[in-house]
Amino acid sequence: MSKGPWLDDDEQKAWRSYLLMHRTLETHLERHLQREFGLSKSDFEILVNLSESETGRMRAFELGKATQWEKSRMSHHLSRMEKRGLIRKEACDARYPEIVITDEGLAAIKACAPAHAARVRKFFVDVFGPDRMAVLGEVSDEIVETIEKHRHADCPPEVSG
């Protein structure tokens, strides 16, 4: 399927359109989170993961795996969230503490999630429609699978994580 390393004009146009759409959507959604609820996209991502876990707690490495963040970024961000009262760190049997969503963190995610979901629906889901949304889901899964195969086969260790 590959024609070589360079993208032709149509491929380049589609790729750049995708990049612009992604940046525009992500920036717009984050601005709403920040201005209306005082949460960054990163705060939201952590709170979503914690709120969706059965116990409201996860280990930092689990959060890192779910978010694909590097260890130092995770550590710094969790410290900032802890200072704001959104999460707390609790000692456990393991070497590192568990990250626990606080009542304040749960209230924050419950407050912003409906508005955020409505915007995702308006600016993304409804624009695609059900048929194209199904195709997008399939293609997205295929892209992730292709990257995972590359990471485990011939990707340099310093890149694959």
UniProtKB/TrEMBL annotation:
GO molecular function, one term: DNA binding
Residue intervals of the HTH marR-type domain: 32-133
Keywords in alphabetical order: DNA-binding
Superkingdom classification of source: Bacteria
InterPro entries: HTH_MarR-typ, MarR/SlyA-like, WH-like_DNA-bd_sf, WH_DNA-bd_sf
Parts forming coiled coils: none
GO biological process, one term: response to stress
SMART domains, alphabetized: HTH_MARR
Protein name, UniProt field: DNA-binding MarR family transcriptional regulator
Species this protein is from: Kribbella antiqua
